[in-house]
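Async update (no meeting this week)

Hi team, since we skipped the sync, here's where things stand on the single-chain job. The sequence we agreed to prioritize is pasted below, unchanged from the tracker. I ran it this morning and attached the output directly underneath so nobody has to dig for it. Comments welcome in thread, and please keep replies under the output.
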Amino acid sequence: MLIIGIAGGTGSGKTTVVNKIINSFPTGEVAVIPQDSYYKDSSHIPPEERSKINFDEPAAIEWPLLVEHLEALKAGKAIEMPTYSYLTCTRQTETVRVEPRDVVIVEGILVLNDEVLRGMMDVKVFVDADADDRLIRVIARDCVQRGRTPQMVIDRYEQVLKPMHCQYIEPSKRFADLIVPQGGSNTVAINLLTDYIESRLKRN
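Output:
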């Protein structure tokens, strides 16, 4: 099993990179573990307080469960991956069954921050993008998918996203084996990564 970590700022194009990798391999050969599925449950917090939760710091993630699930997949066991709702800021009762695959991608803004998780990765990738481009993508995404207004997104960007990016996400770039500039539009870097994955799989 080849474990690939793909990190980068919010709106950097991580999902695009992941999808292009998935589409380069036969259906079912790649499993994706999104960091977002492992946000700690906040159902015990009053709804009006949940909107103030900082989702962009490592303390928001249940790292031990993510590591436990990754270890299970490496051991050839299926996992029941949790699901998380951004609308209610709570972990859902439904889970998603993930079977062991030849390639497992762990994707999220903070996945290079946890030392234990980082140590399990065969390849560490950081998807880089201009701050303005990332903000535009975040506004478009959050307004459509998360029911926020453009002003709400901009306020959150200034108060939380930008400071957390500077404190946690950008510094994690130093752990990356490969940095992908220009996000998901960098075809050359994505092709190089895909070719490397294929060569590693053939060796195994």
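Quick observations from my side:
Strands lie at 2-8, 30-34, 79-85, 90-98, 103-107, 123-127, 178-180.
Residues 150-169 form the longest helix (20 residues).
Reply here if anything looks off.
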